[in-house]
Amino acid sequence: xxxxxxxxxxxxxxxxxxxxxxxxxxxxxxxxxxxxxxxxxxxxxxxxxxxxxxxxxxxxxxxxxxxxxxxxxxxxxxxxxxxxxxxxxxxxxxxxxxxxxxxxxxxxxxxxxxxxxxxxxxxxxxxxxxxxxxxxxxxxxxxxxxxxxxxxxxxxxxxxxxxxxxxxxxxxxxxxxxxxxxxxxxxxxxxxxxxxxxxxxxxxxxxxxxxxxxxxxxxxxxxxxxxxxxxxxxxxxxxxxxxxxxxxxxxxxxxxxxxxxxxxxxxxxxxxxxxxxxxxxxxxxxxxxxxxxxxxxxxxxxxxxxxxxxxxxxxxxxxxxxxxxxxxxxxxxxxxxxxxxxxxxxxxxxxxxxxxxxxxx
Length: 361
Ligand code: GCU
Known about the structure:
By secondary structure, the chain is of the alpha/beta class. The chain contains eleven helices and ten strands.
């Protein structure tokens, strides 16, 4: 059944190079570079180069957060680019009981800490650290490339067809949090996940695709231009997203308004570019704007990239999922939650279960 659905959507094959040749396992890294180039040039824009230097200053500490179980630090991160410097704060909550601990980099909608999308105590009680920044502290969620980190990167220059959109800039910021994590002995560097919800779920997939230091990339309800296949998608489509939020993407993405079938890619390329690391996509059944079925289909279509290394990719039945179904067997994880568009505790629990099951040794 799903094979027919994939055929109907006429997706480009994840294991065929642009020149038509087939991708073998020894050429996966070459194909991954090709996927990243397509995604950068056509959709999200080129990621800015890493900073010349980076600095971290702990500005507040709470030694006995969460009844003494957690150390909480507020840290000011400063990047030095050729074009200037920029600072933004993030928070690090590290449990005392488990060291070294796996960790999440949570690209967050909100401050302060914790908040409705981030049950810090519960995450730390499960033995995970959580590093979190508010995306608007990096650069505004507006069509404005003159302020914030975007202003430093752009220096007043006009946007070109492949200039980074805001999603790429937020993803770049998540990579800088990863730079900080690399300096910590208390974190298990083999098991760091990047996670986000909705527009920030799109961002988490981009960060995970481009930065191989993330062992897991997790997108919650990310929908259009995130985990969901764009061809024949229900709910939001490229016309809507690229009209209302053109600045999330590079200007080239405008070419695909009402023209999804001409794209040399679809969103399964973004998921596949995370292989051979692990990825998780979660949907909510009432989130029809995001389109759970198109999110699920992207996992199906990306699976061959994960199977290439001899691992189980997306282990799923030959039908669309049922509400409450969790698919955690392979390296592509998925669940369909009841309810609406939201980053719930249930979602966090599934992500933690998946990471515990597929932890890198
Ligand atoms: C809007 C937008 C979505 C996005 C969501 C969010 O609904 O259309 O693409 O995912 O906002 O980030 O909350």
